[in-house]
Structures are given as C-alpha cells and as structure tokens.
Amino acid sequence: LGWWDHVKPAPKDPIIGVTEAFLADTNPNKINLGVGAYRDNEGKPVVLQCIRYADSKIAGCEFLESNATEVGSKLVEESVKLAYGKHAHLLKDGRVAGLQALSGTSACRLFAELQRRFYPESPIYLPDFTWSNHHNIWRDAQVPERSFRYYHPISKRLNFAALMDDVENAPDGSFFLFHPCAHNPTGVDPTEEQWREISNKFKVKNHFPFFDMAYQGFASGDLDVDALPIRIFLEDGHLIGCAQSFAKNMVLHGHRVGCLSVLCDDVKQAVAVKSQLQQIARTTYSNPPVHGISLVSTILSDPQTKVLWFKEVKVMANRIKQMRITLRETLEKLGGPVSWEHITNQVGMFCFSGLTPDEIDRLVREFHVYITPDGRMSMAGVNTSNVNYLANALHEVTR
Ligand code: PLP
C-alpha cells in the first residue's frame, strides 16, 4: 500500500468550483457572480487610488526588518480605531488584545483556537446561513458548532423573533458569531433597534459576541455607520471579539491584511490573551508578510489618504446599490410572477436570490451566469453592460 493511499480528496470549496466552471466556459456572454470581490463597471478588478499612493509612500521601507513590529502595532491601533470608533481608547487603556492577522480568515481561526484552548467545551453559535468557511474554521479548530436562526427564506428577511429565541435558549455564557454588516451570504442585517435588543439580551444571558467584519463600508457606504453594531455592544459594556479584513474594502484580497482584537476586563487579561494569540500565530505562520500591513497602516494613519479611502469605499458601495436598483427595475418591467423586492432590501456585496437548485442549474447551462449553489449572487459582478442580460436570464428561469 502506498504511503498516502488512504487520503481521499477533500471536498471542493463551492466558491472555487464556481470560478473554475466560469473560466472553462467559452460563451462570450458569461457572467461570474460567484466570487465576492469588487469589480468596476467594466467588470475589471480595481486598484484603489489610496493603495497606489500608499505604495509609492512606503517604497522599500517594508524591507527593513526593524519595521515589522512597529508596522504591526500601528495596524492594530488603526484597525481598532476603525472598528471601535470613540471606544478605541480601550486599546490605550490596555484592555484590548490585538494582533495583525492574515486577513479575516486567520483572524477567525486565531479566535477559534483561543476558544478551544480556554473554553474547550463551549460551542460557537453560527448564524443560519453564514459564510461557508466559518463551519470549516471552527471545525478544524475542534470547537463544537451550533447554529442560531437568522434568515427567513419566505420573507427573505431577518427572522428576528427566532434569532432572539435562540439567543435566549442558548446556555448562559455562550459564544455567538455575528456579521456586523453586509451579511454573507444573505445581505440581511439587523436594524439598529434590533442590534440594541440583541445587545440587551446578551447582557442578561452573559453571552460573548464575536464580530466577523469582512465588509465594513459595503452595507451603507460609510465605514462608521457599518461599525455601529460593534459600538452599540461596546457602549453597553460587553467584552467582544472582532475580526477585521481589508480584503474587500481596500480590494487587497491577495495581500491578506486583517486584525483580530479581543476586548478584556483589564490589562492583565489582555496581556495574557495577546501572548496566547501570539503563540498560536507563531506555530502556524509566525508573522504575516509586512507589505500589505504597511499599505493599510499608511492609509489609516494619514488623515488625507484615509479620507480618500472613505470616498473610494463609498463609490464602490454606491455602484453596487445602483446595480441593485437597475436589476430590480429591469426585472419588474419584464413582469414575471416573482417579487424582486429583496434585491434592493438586501445590502452589501451579495443578493441571496432565493432561486431553486433547478433555476440555478438553468442559469448556468442556458445563460452562462455563474452563482454559488446556495443562490448567492455577488452584485459586485453586475454592471451596466450585463445587467439587462442578467435580468433577462433571471426572468426566463423564474417565469
Ligand atoms: N468573513 C466573511 C463573512 C467573509 O465573507 C470572508 C470572505 O469572503 C472572510 C471572513 C474572510 O476573507 P479574507 O480572509 O479574504 O479576509
């Protein structure tokens, strides 16, 4: 028997499968709405102006070894400001265990590992639905998983009553994961009022909220508005965990820049938690590459460049919002039996279409429109040149 004969191929990531099928398709009308990455109105990936500026500013400095730690702490400081807003003093107070991470994925994984080390019996409650990799991350970290109800497939809105029931019925002191904005894959976020209720209930139940913020800015177009849920929880005096990714909002996917912060009761706890996180990182990738971190911390710490970035985020978010409006209007003009209201009710990068597996199959085979098997469409792939074609395809498969 061969050494690796007992190894079977791991299941394919559904999103990577969609991209492969798209690339193999030779039809000129093909549209890829699988991957959650921003595209401009020509369907091209973008390099933000703020990135170009920061890149010219740092030119070469990232090669200085002595720079790495400094750049890492700057990134944590600026990321915490971005997420915590006026509560960012908690970092200066020494209560935040913060670490730069390999984008949002490793921020989640670091937290999952921390959970396993110190709360080995406690499950993570994940929203139903959630980003598919959340299941894998907590599974590989050997943390048991539970789910809480979130999305209501009939109304295509938040099932708030069921969510609150599940929060209530979880054992006191449970870990819950929330997407603070632009929920992936459903595009459905709680309202401000609902976040306040969730926060109040968390107080009563002594639950621990972990926020995975991969799309800050994409829901409302305003980075501060999108961080509101986190700030509500901080206002209410919760301890929180927060994963941040700059993959989407700085269009830096390949550079893997992110941050994990864990708010603790006091300095002593924060020092201990940070040292544990550093140890976990040390045995997996030691330190993240410094170039991307330098770009992000340069942008965040220079007020003018930060303003430019805020504007560029707004432009991206607004383009997607406009495409939602155009797609819905075009579908409504075509006049099929289905309601398309959810296209504009949902926010962020994704529209959770509600299409059946048969309809999705037809979309791919007959129209060469690629979406993930759960019916998620990345609105970032829609533009003025393909929106009519897309509307027609959606109309044909649902009428
Ligand atoms: N969290 C959510 C909800 C996501 O959708 C993603 C990416 O799709 C991530 C985290 C992690 O992305 P990255 O590791 O590229 O920052």
From TrEMBL:
Keyword Transferase: yes
Recorded catalytic activity of this chain's protein: L-aspartate + 2-oxoglutarate = oxaloacetate + L-glutamate
UniProt keyword terms in alphabetical order: Aminotransferase, Pyridoxal phosphate, Transferase
InterPro entries membership: Aminotransferase_I/II_large, Asp_trans, NHTrfase_class1_PyrdxlP-BS
Gene Ontology cellular component terms for the protein in this record: mitochondrion
Gene Ontology annotations of biological process type: amino acid metabolic process
Signal peptide residues on this chain, from the entry's feature table: none
Enzyme Commission number, as recorded: 2.6.1.1
Enzyme class: transferase
Any one GO molecular-function label of the UniProt entry: L-aspartate:2-oxoglutarate aminotransferase activity
Cofactor(s) required, per the database record: pyridoxal 5'-phosphate
UniProt domain Aminotransferase class I/classII large: residue ranges: 29-394
Function: Important for the metabolism of amino acids and Krebs-cycle related organic acids. In plants, it is involved in nitrogen metabolism and in aspects of carbon and energy metabolism.
Quaternary organization: Homodimer.
Protein family per UniProt: Belongs to the class-I pyridoxal-phosphate-dependent aminotransferase family.
Protein name: aspartate transaminase
Organism annotation: Carya illinoinensis
